[in-house]
Amino acid sequence: MEPFLLPVVFLAVAAAFTLSASAGFGGSLILVPTLALVLGTKSGVALAALLLAANNLVKVFAYRKTLPFRKAAVVIALVAAGSFLGAKLLDSAPERVVTLAVIASFAAAFLVETLDLTRWRRFGSPVMAFAAGATSGFSGTSGPLKGLAVRELALDRLHLVGALSMASLVGDATKAAVWTDAELLTGGDYLVALVCLPLMFVATFLGKRFNTRIGERGYTGLFWTVMAGYTGRLLTGL
């Protein structure tokens, strides 16, 4: 990475990880398009996965008292499996098709959420979890599907953020491992992640502080704002 690009990366990291620690997800909404713009699509997506994996490790530590291991285990495992498949298929995946699939899945899931179709929601959560990982490997972002999959676990705000942090950590770590093996990530990328580590702690602290100060209604609004942001970004890419 060219030295003059580092300030752009640091600014994107600070904004992305503060949002991520506040809502539990949403970091890729800012980080992936920024890094893809300055580094190129594949390199940007790969570095974003590495940075997000490191940040999610910090988030898991920050929310260590509200990590719903049992309730989130199936969702996390399916996100990991989907991420592995998606990362392997990054080179051949038609991005337009993936984008349309994510939007269609989000629209269907939003409809189910609105109509409160309990049986479908129970079935749909594992499906969305696997699709979240797979589309994340294709496009670098899985926020709408992952957010809805974890939301179906019926957790309170802090446990929801904890579950999202664990699912994101496993998914991003899986992608980073696959792309390191494929040489999309190099030693220089890991050095950038190491340099960004102090910034991750500060951003996570600020995000968690904000999360604890807003009520349930405020968090619900933040959650759906992030969801709308993901969908808007996908639509603009068509």
From TrEMBL:
Its main location: membrane. It is found in: Cell membrane; Membrane. It is a multi-pass membrane protein. The chain crosses the membrane at residues 30-52, 72-90, 96-115, 158-178, 190-207. Keywords: Cell membrane, Membrane, Transmembrane, Transmembrane helix. Belongs to the 4-toluene sulfonate uptake permease (TSUP) (TC 2.A.102) family. This is Probable membrane transporter protein. It comes from Streptomyces lasiicapitis.
